[in-house]
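To the wet lab folks,

You asked to see what we're planning to order before we commit. Fair enough. Below is the target structure as tokens, and below that is the sequence we designed to fit it. If anything looks off to you, flag it before the synthesis order goes out.
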């Protein structure tokens, strides 16, 4: 299972590549929408990256309550533990 630190590092890498968000701006308590300006199209790109990492399809119900970077980390940890 991936650690929180490993997942956070991956998220920083992806969000920098995909959305040009500076890695130091991506903290566990950062709100994806208000702090990082991620929109629904960006969220789809993120879901694709999560699938590549875990090898599993992200279920919409798993992702609909995601608001912060910590929420994304938790979803990935849960998926990698299954």
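Sequence we intend to order:
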């Amino acid at each position: 299972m991936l650690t929180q630190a490993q997942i956070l590092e991956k998220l920083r890498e992806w969000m920098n590549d995909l959305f040009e968000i500076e890695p130091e701006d991506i903290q566990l308590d950062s709100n994806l929408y208000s702090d990082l300006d991620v929109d629904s199209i960006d969220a789809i790109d993120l879901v694709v990256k999560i699938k590549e990492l875990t090898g599993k399809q992200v279920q919409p119900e798993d992702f609909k309550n995601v608001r912060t970077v910590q929420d994304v980390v938790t979803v990935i940890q849960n998926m990698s533990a299954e």
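Structural context that might help your review: The chain is about 60% helix and 0% strand. The helical segments are 4-19, 40-54, 60-63, 69-81.

Thanks,
Computational group
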